[in-house]
Write a structure and sequence with these properties.
Layout (H helix, E strand, L loop, with lengths): L11 E3 L2 E3 L4 E5 L6 E6 L3 H20 L2 H17 L1 H12 L3 H21 L6 E3 L7 E8 L2 E5 L7 H13 L2 E5 L5 H14 L6 E3 L5 H10 L5 E5 L2 H12 L4 E5 L4 E5 L5 H13 L9 E7 H16 L19 H16 L3 E4 L14 E4 L6 H4 L6 E7 L2 H9 L3 E2 L1 E5 L3 H10 L4 E4 L14 E2 L2 E2 L12 E8 L3
Parallel strand pairs: 7-8, 7-10, 8-9, 10-11, 12-13, 12-18, 13-16, 15-16, 18-19
Antiparallel strand pairs: 1-2, 3-4, 5-6, 6-22, 11-21, 14-15, 17-20
Helix pairs in contact: 1-7, 2-4, 2-5, 2-6, 3-4, 3-6, 4-5, 7-8, 9-10
Bound molecules: adenosine-5'-diphosphate.
């Protein structure tokens, strides 16, 4: 890959400039193993420089009119859409997802820029009736300051934009470290921010192979006001502990273990469609992907047949090829994890309905797989699978399945299908998850609050609530009036 992709950038970006590094690291295409680029490998010292650039920019950026920030975010959004094809290609090359999904991700990311450009104008304060007549109580909302962020490889564009759009809309400045596997999408975003006229130091990107070193600066540098993370619960806990030292504001979007429940009154065809969308999107590598499928016993066999037929139609292949539904997994470690989960399930009594292995032993293409007779003691039901493995089990009663669905430390997304209005409310209210899809397998949207409860984290991205993660509340007491 070379100059034929103008948005291919291989230096880091802070203070409005492309910045080199003492060493570089390789980015490879998971579909082919081909090396795509060598990217400047930012050091922790450079992370400190980027934080300083963000701090320097904060005074003027936070003082700009909301309208001006909104206009810049909108210009950035338009550039994302104008370059949608090119950004999607870069994304597929480094991440593997089918091009159509990658294009969808660019549009999805851009939608947050539009949403928060509009929301930037609505950072309302309050006046509160005071207890005595010589006083007035006012509440202001102010940007927290410099925000640092660490993002994962599964949505190399949207996970960054979703955070940056909210942060920049409020007047915060932003420094992000993308995942080592997918820095090219992040650096392309920086190029478009530059073209959009986002001022120097407001949006900064540091690609690095030293996640731990950069993470320490991001979570412990006193110049940083807030840290926002999307990734695994295990890493999130470490970073939270690091943030505790300086009592930093944090947002944590961590792992999930989404249940998908099919009641016997459901529209089974719609449920199959919703399940496939929620399970196999990004080859199962999203934190809201279905992890456990519970089907009411009386429809379990019929449902399993329909699932099998639908899965047989899925095409696994290079995301750049036309008509492909699933690309490769991100790396060898991801493939090994999925293999181990499937082997453990089969050894513990699950049935293999289809799939169950890689397409060829030396590739990262794992076949879409269906297991039945899974139970909740198996690792495949307890851990986040992060792969194209659909694990079916059956249940008898509503109370039983609600108990099973909630019996997890995670609380990100849950899904269920039913046409009974009473049941819909009972189950939706009883599920201990931050997001619930009711007769719907795809729930993400810029207008809706994305986030979890329990060990899936806290904070919300998108929606009218999303700005609050980047705002401090200040109470003014006016006396002597
Ligand atoms: P995933 O399983 O999606 O790779 P991780 O939580 O391992 O989830 O990675 C998400 C992000 O966290 C990536 O950008 C990765 O580089 C970063 N990361 C991983 N370990 C650490 C760490 N110890 N400190 C800071 N960041 C980390």
């Amino acid at each position: 890959m070379n100059a034929s992709v103008p948005l291919l950038k291989t230096e880091n970006f802070w203070q409005g400039q492309w910045q080199g590094a003492p060493t570089r690291f390789a980015v490879t295409n998971p579909a082919t193993g081909e090396q795509l680029a060598e990217v400047a490998d930012a050091t922790p010292e450079q992370a400190g420089l980027a934080v300083q650039a963000a701090l320097d920019a904060f005074a003027s950026w936070s003082a700009t009119a909301a309208d001006e920030r909104a206009a810049l975010l909108q210009r950035w959004q338009q550039l994302l859409l104008a370059h949608q094809g090119e950004l999607a290609l870069l994304l597929t090359l480094e991440q593997g997802k089918p091009l159509a999904e990658a294009k969808g991700e660019i549009a999805y990311g851009a939608s947050y820029l539009q949403w928060f450009a509009e929301e930037a104008r609505r950072v309302y304060g309050d006046t509160i009736p005071a207890a005595s007549t010589d006083k007035r109580i006012l509440v202001l909302k102010q940007p927290v300051g410099v925000v640092t962020a660490i993002t994962p490889w599964n949505f190399p564009n949207a996970m960054i934009v979703r955070k940056a759009a909210a942060a920049l809309a409020t007047g915060c400045t932003f420094v992000v470290k993308p995942a080592q596997q997918t820095p090219l999408s992040a650096l392309a975003l920086a190029e478009l921010a530059l073209q959009a006229g986002i001022p120097a130091g407001v949006f900064n990107v540091l690609a690095s192979s030293d996640a731990k070193g950069i993470g320490e600066v991001f979570t412990q540098d006193p110049r940083v006001a807030k840290f926002s993370f999307t990734g695994s619960t295990a890493v999130g806990k470490t970073l939270l502990a690091q943030c505790a030292q300086g009592v930093k504001r944090v947002s944590m979007e961590l792992g999930g273990n989404a249940p998908f429940i099919v009641f016997d009154d459901a529209d089974l065809d719609a449920a199959v469609q919703g399940l496939l969308a929620s399970k196999f999107r990004n080859a199962g590598q999203t934190c809201v992907c279905t992890n456990r499928v519970y089907v009411q016993a009386s429809v379990a066999e019929a449902f399993s047949k329909k699932v099998q037929q639908a899965v047989a139609r899925l095409r696994l292949g290079n995301g750049c090829d036309h008509g492909v539904d699933l690309g490769p997994l991100i790396d060898e470690a991801a493939c090994r994890k999925v293999e181990a989960l499937v082997q453990d399930a089969l050894a513990s009594g699950a049935n293999l309905i289809c799939g169950g292995q890689r397409q060829s032993p030396d590739s990262l293409f794992y076949q879409p797989t269906v297991l039945s007779k899974v139970d909740d003691r198996m690792a495949v039901a307890k851990q986040e699978i992060f792969g194209p493995v659909l694990a079916l089990q059956s249940f008898d009663t509503e109370a039983e399945v609600l108990g099973k669905a909630n019996a997890t430390d995670y609380g990100l997304a849950a899904y269920f299908y039913s046409r009974d209005i009473g049941r819909i409310f009972r189950v939706a209210e009883g599920l201990q998850f931050g997001m619930v899809g009711v007769n719907e397998g795809i729930i993400s949207n810029a207008a809706a609050p994305f986030g979890g409860v329990k060990q899936s984290g806290y904070g919300r991205e998108g929606s009218k609530y999303g700005l609050d993660d980047y705002l401090d509340i200040k109470y003014l007491c006016l006396g002597g009036l």
